[in-house]
Write a structure and sequence with these properties.
Layout (H helix, E strand, L loop, with lengths): L2 H25 L1 H8 L26 H6 L2 E8 L4 E4 L12 E6 L2 E11 L4 E5 L11 E5 L1
Length: about 140
Amino acid sequence: MHRKDIKRIFFGFVLIFLAVFSLAVALYWPEFQKQFFPEMTVPRQKNVVPAPVSAPVATPVARDQKESIKKEGLLWVDPASAQYVVTLGKTQGIWEGKKLKVYDGTDLLGQVIVDRALETVSYVVAEKSADISKDTYYRVVAE
C-alpha cells in the first residue's frame, strides 16, 4: 500500500469515530447534562401540594346583554372548497341560520347567512345583495 492510501484510510476512521461520538452525545445529552452540569438542570419540586382554588364566581348576565355583545371575525374564500368561511364558530355563539353583517373597512357590504357552524369557523352563504369579492378578506360582525 502506498503512504497516501494509509492516510486516507486513517482519515476515514477518524470521520467515522467523530460521527459515532456525535450521535452518542446527541442521544445521551440529557443524561450528560444532569451529570456534568447540574446547575443547568431545573430541579424538580417534590411533594408540592397545590393550594385549593376557589371556583370563579359567575356574575349573572341577562340574555339581552349576551346577545347584544358584538363578535367580530374575518370572512374569506376557502380555495379548496370555494366556499365563504368566517372565523366565528360555535364557541362564539354562532349557529346555523344566523345572519352576519359583512364590512369592507367601515362600509357595509351586505349580510351572509351561516350554512354550517363548526367549533371555531363557520361556512356561510352570501345573500344576493352582498357584493363580496373572492380575492380579499372582510370584517364580519355578529350582533
